[in-house]
Amino acid sequence: MCRKLFLLLSFVVVLGLANPSLGWISAQINFTGGDPCGAPYYWDVASNWDTGKVPVDGNSVYINQTGKTCLIEDGIAAMCGGHADQWGMSLFVAGGGSGNVDGTLDVTGGSLTVTSNSMGCGFTVGCEGVINISGGTINIPGGSYHCGYSWNGHGVTNMTGGALNINTDLNIQTTATDPTYPNHNGQFYLNGGTVQVAAGTLNIGDHEDTVLDIGGGTLILPGDKVSLIDGFIATEDIVPYGGSMRAEIKRDYNVTNASKTTVWAEWKDLAKAWNPKPKHGAVEQSILTTLAWTPGDYAPATNGHYVYLGTADDALVLQPGQPQTPNTYDPGQLEYDTTYYWRIDEVNTGGGVNQGDVWMFSVKDHDVVDDFESYGTNAELKAVWTDGWWAEDSGSLVNLSTFPVHGDDSTQSMEYAYDNDGSLYDPDYGWYYPPMFSEAYMDLVSTGNTDLTRADATTLVIWFRGQSDNDVEPMYAGLEGSYAQVDYPGSNDIRIPMWQEWNINLSEFAGVDASDVDKLYIGFGTRGGAGSAGGSGVVYFDDIRIYPQRCLNLDEVDLTGDLNGDCVVDWKDMAETAEQWLDSGISTTP
Questions:
Q1: In sequence order, what are the beta bridge partners of 500?
Q2: DSSP per residue over 430-446, as a string?
């Protein structure tokens, strides 16, 4: 009965359009979901719109009704456009119009034509706009499609079928994040159907949640956009099948579609090993890295894996003890500053072998003693670092800090307060009187750091940062098997508010076997507290590392011919030149 009534009302609307004397149509129309018959709320039912009229060319449309979905299905030819709001939009789902609320548009069949300007979803603060496309056709012949526009709006497009034809651009998160609106983002799930851009391009925003997730659908772009797509793949702005490592994004230019770039997703060979750890392309890995992977679907539970490893992708070496049962492999101690390639070949149920993909990772030029990133709480830090405040045997107090930190990838450091006047006040326990020095130590046994010479390391490096109002006190580092310490050569440096690198040759810790140490000490003042009362201050520590022999060149000597990085230009560099004289990129000095 409701659909019959709708047809009659539609006839009256058409008469009104034909005869201006019967009424004027407002340029902007808001979806209300006012159909007395209730859901589903069809686009072409006049009572679902605040004007009592179905949108036509000449209207801009806002769909803002939480809990009510506007529906376009087979037999409905929806239309809007010819008028735009101040943002150039002729159709917006969630945002503007009748209020800052969520909105949903479902297109299961039929057609929607935005005759001019653009359409989109997700606008204004806290609003989520959802467009579900499972059939039918959406045509935007004069504008762009926006999924997540601005002002902290959240746009979602779920496409499982149908066609979306865009003239200008496909924008997923239209505007960049900024301090005022840091949370607007968009997700476009292309799990079916076809998106075709006629004259523009693909833009993907910078929010960490913004993504184009391609499953069973296809994206077609004009011209050669292969490098653009590859860039988005590299930054994981485009992912296959929810980011599955068992799938990959495929793209071609002028192959599937003439003079166009076609993008889709495919599942990889399920017989292959996958999910490598370290991740393919990972950098800054430890010399003690263990390889791990997820087995292919058909690998047997026993002796199902062959492990290959090497420093060249075309010269991988089968490792000892193959085939093996575990899906992990410990290659032993790796070399600093070296790139490794590895592959897992899986035994299949028929007895053959499925050759795997070649993965790559690089080992950093140092190993970590403590970068303070593993501690989730202050208590976890203090389980490894013991200060004088806790032991009441010196004036030191250490705490976890999030500022300042050393390096772009660092998020935490250690704040070290020293007080060498011989008296400290604890609000819980009152005054106590420690010796007039400050010292804290790291337990190297519990952290597996007892061998500081691993992989031929020769140097201990400690990064520290002072404060301009610090009192000057001598700083030292100590190692304990049998104890020895090294004094920092410039005490005034603890007053410099910038990160500084302290390099200590392990041989300077006289009498200590650096391959078997229990504790690493950092202190201020004269150890033991002998002498007069001292001062106080705060120093931050981060990135305590060990390095193999390396060239620091602190005196800035010309070392153009130093090919092996040992700070000396000698016969060893000539030998390296002779060994690699046919390789490109080798420069020599006469």
A1: 464
A2: EEE---SSEEEEEETTT
For residues 184 and 201, membership in a common domain is answered with: yes
- Residue 504 contacts residue 460 (beta carbons within 8 Å): yes
* Segments forming the whole domain that contains residue 335: 274-363
Structure tokens at 447: 């952290």
* Residue 589 placed within a domain: no
Domain count, the chain: 3
Q: How many residues does the chain have?
A: 590
Q: How far apart are CA 551 and CA 459, in angstroms?
A: 11
pTM to 2 decimals? Answer: 0.62
Q: Write out pLDDT tens, residues 349-374.
A: 877 999 999 999 999 999 999 999 99
The pLDDT tens digits of the residues spanning 493-515 come to: 999 999 999 999 999 999 999 99
Residue among 314, 349, 345 nearest 329 (CA): 345
**Token pair of 126 as six digits:** 């806290």
Note whether residue 576 is domain-resident.
Answer: no
Residues 355 and 495 in one domain: no
Q: Nearest CA to 281 among 340, 343, 336, 345?
A: 340
Neighbours of 397 (CB within 10 A): 18
SS3 string, 4-25, reads HHHHHHHHHHHHHHHCHHHCCC
